[in-house]
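Dear Dr. L.,

I hope this message finds you well. Following up on our conversation about the binding site, I have prepared a predicted three-dimensional model of the protein together with tetrahydrodeoxyuridine. For your records, I am including the exact sequence and ligand specification that went into the calculation, followed by the structure tokens. Please feel free to forward this to your student if that is useful.
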Amino acid sequence: MNFEKLIEEAYEAKKQSYAPYSGFHVGAALLALDGEIYRGCNIENAAYSPTNCAERTAFFKAVSEGKREFAAIAIVGDKREFLAPCGVCRQVMSEFCDAKQFKIILASSKTEYEIYTLEELLPQSFSKDNL
Ligand code: THU
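The resulting structure of the complex is given below.
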């Protein structure tokens, strides 16, 4: 997979970020196993807690359109540092993604990025197997 293309999509997604309260803009691009890419941005709210992260926006768009299998997600912010997904987003990823296969790409530019598996970012997760 060409991760640079996925990172570019994440930067495109960030342009739609609605973050008037934090001023912290985030973009994500989620690659489904069938090759489709779903963009997501963070969407804030005056009541704060309804805020949705970019990663979950991408997942919920994809899942609501019938996708259930995913290969990777690229995440970008405004800063030159890597932006790791929050715990809630990691948990949402764990619902649909294989912990050893799913790749999380943290990018600070189109060519500078780190790749983690979901297992690395969410070890010993709680899942449907625990129910
Ligand atoms: N945010 C994300 O979109 N993804 C993350 O992984 C971390 C945080 C958003 C939520 C909120 O709109 C802003 O960044 C500040 O927390």
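In brief: The beta strands are 27-32, 37-41, 70-76, 103-107, 113-117.

With kind regards,
A. P.
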